[in-house]
Amino acid sequence: VNLSKIRIITILFIFIGTIIVGYMKANQLNEVELVSGLGIDKVDDRYAVSLQIFNPSANQKNSVDPTGGFTYTQTGRTIPEAIQKMKKDSLKEPILDTLQAVVLSEKLAKDEGLNETLDFLIRDPRIPANINTVILKDQSPELFLTLFTPQKKLSALYTNTMLKNAAEVWGTLVKTSSERIKSQLTDKTSDIVIPYMEIHGAPEDGTTKGNIEKFLPSTRLSLEGFATFKGEKLHSYLTAKDSTTLALIKGEDQVVSISAQCPDSDQPFTINTIHTSSSLKAGADPVSFQLNVRVKGNLEQTACKKTITGRLKGKMEDRLEAEIKANIEKVMERAQEDKTDILGLKDALYRQHPDLWKKKQHEKNFPFSEKIDTHVDVQFIRFGHIKQ
Amino acid sequence: MNTKQSGTLEKRVSELLASFGESSDIKTRSLTLQGGQLSACLLYIENIVDSSSIQEHIIEPLMQKEAPAEEGRFFPYMIQEVIQVTNIEVIGEVDGIINKLVNGSTIIMFEGHRNVLAADTAKWMERSLSSPKGQRTVQGPDVGFTESRSSNVGMIRKFIKNPDLQVETATYGNLTQTSVSLVYLDHKVDPEILADIKEKLQKIDLDSVIGSNYISECLTKESKTLFPLVLDTDRPDVAVAEVLEGRVCIVVDGSPFTLIAPAVFIQFFQSADDYYIRSEATKYIRSIRFIFFWVALYIPALYVAFTTFHKGLLPVNLLVGFTAQQETVPFPTVIEVFIVVTLTDAIFEGTTRLPQAVIITLSLFGAIVFGQASVEAQLVQPITLVIVSVSFIYSSLIPIAIMNYSVRILKLSLILIGALLGLYGLALFTLILLVHLCYLRSFTVPYLAPISPFTRKDMAKDVFIRNPIPDINKSIPLFHKEEPMEDPKKENDS
User: Fold this and answer.
1) Which among A2, A13, A32 is the nearest to B428, CB-wise?
2) ipTM
3) When comparing pLDDT for B480 and A347, which is higher?
4) Most CB atoms closer than 10 Å: which of A1, A181, A286, B376?
């Protein structure tokens, strides 16, 4: 490279740089407010948007300030409009880069659907792309974002931590970034599930400092399970047990305890899984589905009376297989009643028999009337002593 | 031989003394040769001559021998049969006499002879050998160069017992007449590089040469750069290793630091200990030094850039911690970092150069005020102290201290540009820095060699990791010669 060219390149870079400087927002850290949680609700056809802000001094060493943050709420015809209004309340410029969780109200998800909200979340460049979304059952997100939570100073941080831990049981299903939901909504071959949270106890108590001064908080949060959707709209809530079974059907590698009745008595025994997997095969002519579930685990507790022999072990595996199969069938029935394809049947057919999918996709009852064969295989890894 | 009488002995002695302005340390000693016919006079400068040598090898023989009758055989007779000094010359001109005198010779004048004898009796004040101060090692030899050029050259000779080792000595400095030696291995040195160094040395026109840096700066004055293009070392083993690799060692009288040319970037990360400890053990530390260098350079600037421009790119917990700390301090981060960095440099300067008695007070105040009180007074964020300390500690690990000075200046520039332009600015600065490094030449050798231009053979041996001695000992690194840059205009013409 000629030296004069290097000079020109350098001058060019500096020139571009000086232009860019004008557009760069250089705020010192003490001139901004860090947003931890974003709550979106729908009240009287207007969006009620809540922002939960970190209170940095509460996060300092030797801090005596127990209030981890502040919450602002404003309404507007659009979400950005509400956030814009918030600037008159807020002390400093709120920045959304630090967002931990997005909380959507049940009302918003049920009546309006997700599309408009997702559109905002994806469009706004200030919102990180990997932020998980949760549905809040019954209560308003504003209340949710003002709750005092034990151990974590902010309910948004609390939610984020819970979601991370829930990945052990629910796998990738808890990863609900707006992009991911949007892509599932668009591809038409799968229905989405989003984790939902519930507030237990008297909500009024939860917004006071007293809530976290007790060993047993009177108001607490729980990550219950999955909310099922029909298209963009919320349909129903799965229980925690059904949600875990759903994750098993979806082939997530779970670490979870499953109990069944002993073969010889009405006492239970429990297995702790170390590896689970599943495969959903679509068969053609006639269209049918075959679900194979494999579970490997250690025997954790047993109240079976008999001394354990190899034969009993086989029987226990059978019992467990039957139990898991019953759980799965219950979820399948539920899905067929609700007419939501949370199992991913459409997707399986689309991928394995694209031609059949083309014919079938407009059928009204597809895939809610197709037969699904379920086969469960349980294998004990650590079983303890076996009497020969 | 000119034997024409020009004035009496006494007159000529006083003339010589007058040219030294009757300086009090010039001593004379008159004597008469045996037979009482011929008187002579000795002149020397006290403190730079060996007086016992003068007495035993000059005065005593002179007083015992008779002068020969033949005029023409006078000086050969004196040199061969009377005076017992290894180095002796016959000199006629006054300038030559003066020159010999200041170099520690004893001048012997005889009545009736215009020419004089100059016997080398120099004995310079010098300290004995001691440990090298610049680079310490765990397992290496513990002897350093001294201020004497001749003994330094001798130390190199001691390591390389080979007739190929060439020493070329010349004097520089119109006033100081400092002798400077080029030491190199005849068949290993690259003739082009040697010619380049000699050419640059010839152009030196200085009044005084006091330290080796006087020569070093003259050699590299054409390259405008913050990076050292000459390696200086006070370890004979390092100098010897470099000479064996075909480089040229320049020994300057009066400086315990010898110069190694050419010097490329990677040499400043090679510690002598790398070769004295098993290669498996040194692989890790050699490779990590390069990482330390870049971390030391960039970490304060990245800290400023991230907290000012790119808050969203930091992990949330870290950011909340940063924010909580910044709530309490009065200055923007960049000013704070600048203050702390310059303060660190000030403490470093103080502890390096101030008298011993001041250092204790300085480091005491430095540690207490700087480390503790500034945080408690809510003037500085603790995280800033951590970042600046990390940078300082990492940059101190560069084995050749001279590179540390480049890091310090570059660090400040990076902090400034990080505060003005953020990551964009840092990327820009890095680009310019890399272009500069690629453009830089140390005595015709590309500064980034063998990384760029890339030489697989050399890269595999002794760059980021040092391979076992048997693999690297037998061959010397290639000096990279490039094709001369093609002039696009010429290409169009043809």
Assistant:
1) A13
2) 0.74
3) A347
4) A181
